[in-house]
Design goal:
By secondary structure, the chain is an alpha+beta fold. It folds into two domains: 36-51 and 128-266, Nucleoside Triphosphate Pyrophosphohydrolase; 56-105, no CATH class. The chain has helices spanning 2-28, 56-72, 77-93, 108-121, 130-134, 175-187, 210-216, 249-255, 258-265, and strands at residues 36-46, 148-156, 159-163, 166-168, 193-195, 202-207, 220-230, 244-247. Strands 1, 2, 3, 4, 5, 6, 7 and 8 form an eight-stranded mixed β-sheet that branches. Strand 2 and strand 3 form a beta hairpin. The longest helix is centred in the first third of the chain and has 27 residues, at 2-28. The radius of gyration is 35 Å and the shape is elongated. It starts with a helix and ends with a helix. The model is unreliable at 1-30 (pLDDT under 50). It is found in: Mitochondrion. Pfam families: MRP-L46, NUDIX. Keywords: Mitochondrion, Ribonucleoprotein, Ribosomal protein, Transit peptide.
Length: 269
């Protein structure tokens, strides 16, 4: 027992100075506090106007379902009316009913012919618009099958970049209020959106160049993104001074910087 105690004491005496030195070194070198600017960014979406064009396999599947529904369906009121009128015509030929019968003034076949004639005159609106043909990336009347996202040109340091609309948080504001104010200041009152909630859906941070850090007193910016949807597609950005684009997801990947796009793509639908 005496040998065991002595060995334990010797082990503790060797370990304690090392731990104390490590603790003192950690206390002597505290990490400096880094100040970050807080920004609120806004994802503004124009949702699809028309349904997507079906793929070939989807077309075949739809045709199969339509055929199954037709085979299992009951006769409609129009079909039953046609059968009834057919029987009445046979009675008419046999002279068993009057020619002035109210039932034969406008037959189901007359209605069907009128419907077919009206349908033949109907022409659906084109899916490819003039904005698509001219590649007008400022127009909301393009890429009707896809979701478009608003980008605005903003100056970061000495260079300008296309980003989601964003603004610096002011004292006393919530991040949601900052997002609403920044979007209004950037895009004007004409653009009307609905925010999905008070919580951000994404995050991105970047550091300022060393020359800028001393001027602004911050090491970089932390951006909290909020999602919103365009309420009225007939109303575009109302600020003539700002440069903007409405891009689909494939176009966003080409336009945005890679690190920025990776953060944004995580909350794109």
């Amino acid at each position: 027992m005496r040998i065991l105690v002595n060995r334990t004491v010797l082990y503790m005496s060797r370990m304690l100075p090392a731990r104390t030195a490590t603790t003192q070194a950690s206390a002597a070198a505290p990490q400096p506090d880094q100040k970050w600017d807080l920004y609120a960014g806004v994802l503004v979406e124009r949702l699809p106007i028309v349904t997507k064009t079906l793929e070939p396999i989807e077309v075949k599947f739809k045709e199969m379902l339509d055929q199954i529904e037709l085979e299992k369906s009951l006769k409609s009121n129009h079909e039953l009316r046609k059968e009834t009128e057919k029987q009445q015509l046979e009675l008419l030929k046999a002279g068993k009913i009057d020619l002035d019968s109210e039932a034969l003034k406008q037959t189901a076949q007359d209605l069907e012919d009128a419907y077919n004639e009206e349908f033949a005159r109907f022409k659906p609106a084109p899916r490819v618009t003039e904005a698509d043909k001219q590649n007008d990336i400022r127009s909301l009347d393009r890429k009707l099958e896809e979701t478009l996202v608003l980008l605005v040109e903003q100056k970061l340091g000495s260079k300008s970049h296309y980003l989601l609309p964003q603004g610096l948080n002011k004292k006393g504001e919530s991040m949601r209020q900052t997002a609403e104010r920044s979007l209004k200041e950037c895009c004007g009152d004409k653009l009307q959106v609905t925010f999905y909630g008070n919580a951000p859906v994404g995050f991105y941070k970047y550091k300022y160049p060393p020359s800028v850090r001393s001027e602004v007193g911050a090491v970089g910016a932390k951006v909290f993104f909020f999602r919103s949807v365009l309420k009225d597609v007939s109303k575009n950005v109302g600020n003539d001074k700002v440069k903007y684009q409405w891009l689909c997801q494939d176009e966003l990947q080409k336009q945005l910087q890679q690190s920025y796009y990776q953060s944004v793509s995580q909350f794109l639908l």
